[in-house]
Design brief:
The chain is built from seven helices and eight strands. It is an alpha+beta fold and 206 residues long. Helix 3 (46-53) runs antiparallel to helix 4. The protein is globular. InterPro entries: ARB_07466-like_C (IPR058593).
Length: 206
C-alpha cells in the first residue's frame, strides 16, 4: 500500500496430510497485530517547505506548519520502519519483501527464509514467494510455530496482498483453507501478488 501524500507529503514432503479440523485452530490463532505498509521513501518537497516557511511571505504560518508536519512524518517513518530480515531480498517484489521483513520481525526465532530460486512454477523465480523454514518442524513446538506464522500472514493478508500460504498439507487463502496433499512440512510457503519490483525508494513500515 502506498501511503497517501497527505500523510507523508509525497512521501515438502511429508506423511499423512493434515485433516480439515486442524485448519480452524490455525486460523483462530491470529491475534491483533501491527499493520504493515509500504511508503515512498523520498518525502520530496522538504527543501521547498523549509524555504517557504522562512520567506516571511503571507501564509507563512500555514507553510511553517506544513514543514513541521513533514518533520514529524519523516521521524515517524524512521522509527517504525521494518529492518531487513533474514530473507535474501534480491529479486523479490515489494509485497513479498514486506511479508518477509514482517515475519522476521514478529518471529525472531526464524533464522532462515528462502526467496528467489529456480522452479518449474513461477512464484519463486518471479519474486512472489518465500519459504519460512521452521526449526524442529516435526516437534510440537515447531508445528505450533508454523501455525502461528500462518495465522500471522492471514491476519495481514490485505497488507501483504497475500495469495496463499501452505503448511503441513494445507493450502490457506484469505478466503478459506483446503487440506490434503500439499506438502510443505518443514517450512511455511507464502505467496503474495507481488506489487512490482522495488525501485530502492521504498520504506517498509510496521
Amino acid at each position: 500500500m502506498i501511503a497517501p501524500a497527505a500523510a507523508f507529503l509525497a512521501a515438502g514432503s511429508g506423511a499423512t496430510p493434515i485433516a480439515q479440523d486442524i485448519v480452524e485452530p490455525v486460523v483462530a490463532q491470529a491475534e491483533a497485530c501491527c499493520g504493515m505498509e509500504i511508503v515512498a521513501a523520498g518525502l520530496t518537497g522538504a527543501a521547498t517547505l523549509h524555504k517557504a516557511a522562512s520567506t516571511g511571505e503571507p501564509g507563512q504560518p500555514l507553510q511553517a506548519l506544513a514543514a513541521s508536519h513533514w518533520r514529524v512524518a519523516a521521524d515517524r517513518a524512521a522509527r517504525v520502519a521494518l529492518p531487513v530480515g533474514v530473507a535474501p531480498e534480491s529479486g523479490l517484489q515489494v509485497k513479498t519483501i514486506l511479508a518477509a521483513r514482517a515475519v522476521s520481525a514478529a518471529f525472531p526465532e526464524i533464522s532462515s527464509i528462502g526467496g528467489v530460486r529456480p522452479d518449474a512454477l513461477r512464484w519463486h523465480p518471479n519474486g512472489l514467494a518465500i519459504d519460512v523454514m521452521i526449526p524442529n518442524y516435526s516437534s510440537a513446538e515447531g508445528i505450533a510455530l508454523g501455525n502461528e506464522i500462518v495465522a500471522f500472514v492471514l491476519k495481514n493478508a490485505e497488507r501483504f496482498d497475500l495469495q496463499d500460504a501452505i503448511w503441513r498439507g494445507v493450502y490457506f487463502t484469505p478466503g478459506g483453507a483446503k487440506a490434503g496433499g500439499y506438502g510443505h512440512y518443514d517450512h511455511v510457503h507464502i505467496t503474495t501478488k507481488g506489487g512490482g519490483y522495488p525501485t530502492g525508494s521504498e520504506i517498509y513500515l510496521r
